[in-house]
Amino acid sequence: MAKNLPSNTAPKAMVVRNEFFSESMAKPDTGIAPSTFTQAADGASHHISGECCDVKQKKIKFGGRGKEPGKFINNVGVAVSADNEMFVTDWNNQRVQVFSMNGTYLRLFRTVVPGKSKKMYPYDVASDIGPGYLWVLGRSSRFNKGHVVKYSKNGQPIQKFDVSLKSVYPAIAMDVRNNNVIVGDKKTVMMFDPNGSRLWSSEVRTVNGISGVTSDKEGNVLLTDGSKAIQKHNSSGVKIFEFGTYGKGKGQLNRPTGICLDTSGRIIVANSNNNRVDMFTSQGQFVRTIAIITYPRGIAMGPCGELVVTSPLTYTVTIFPRANGASLKP
């Protein structure tokens, strides 16, 4: 059952001006070209649609290390629902935490595996189309087989199916056309129907393993290879193309992880080891850097074009406001 805790038990979100950086990591170049990014694509996993907001927002950061509500230990996955709630996986604490789009803590639920009465370690989360269910990918122990669990948005476990997981951090997303479930794990990307029947799987050439997945309106699956490239596969799992080169320069990638799309189909990538979030066209041409942040991991688009980024290295979540033509400066 969902465990609801009063919102006043959690720390308030912090409005901040500057990012902070790990002592062991190089501080990235903070120069960014003027940018704008648009509202998220309709119904897309890790991104949603909604009425655009006229209210001017500030960048918001919240979190910190801990077990209390509003704190995290290894917060990797993030999704935003059609009713403007943000869901963040809290791996070590075996729970998903729920926040408003201004960073206010709302509630949490334990990631229980239905039929087993066991909690699982949640890696990633996706919100489906229409019904508003949450699909969480995780393991009931650190080393055994994985589960995809369907929850109500209040955390009631509804159903699950098992998946064989080899990766340390597998990824999940939804096919935006039909609510099929996409799982990226190590060197394999898979498509399941909502009951867990595997529709197809495709092997991916990668050194570090798949680190993020999403889909577009045509049913294509996009993934990050965890090393230096983005791949696009068609609705049958056949690779269409890939792009990316390794490095620190503009448009180059160093351990790309989270991935999502905006309403124009542009590809937004958490360029983790380069400490930034980059935007590319649907064909892979570099557009601009849209955010500077320490080790971005999971990313999702909010209802008004906000960019939500998890940073497990700093145990925080950052909400970048819609750019409206201005740079997203740290």
From TrEMBL:
NHL repeat start-end pairs: 59-102, 240-283
Keywords on record: Repeat
PROSITE patterns: NHL
GO biological process: one example: protein polyubiquitination
Coiled coil: none
UniProt cross-references to InterPro entries, sorted A to Z: 6-blade_b-propeller_TolB-like, NHL_repeat, TRIM-NHL_E3_ligases
GO MF entry, a single one: ubiquitin protein ligase activity
Keyword Repeat listed: yes
Superkingdom to which the source organism belongs: Eukaryota
Annotated Pfam families: NHL
Entries under CDD domains matching the protein: NHL
Name of the protein described by the UniProt record: Tripartite motif-containing protein 3-like
Annotated source species: Branchiostoma belcheri
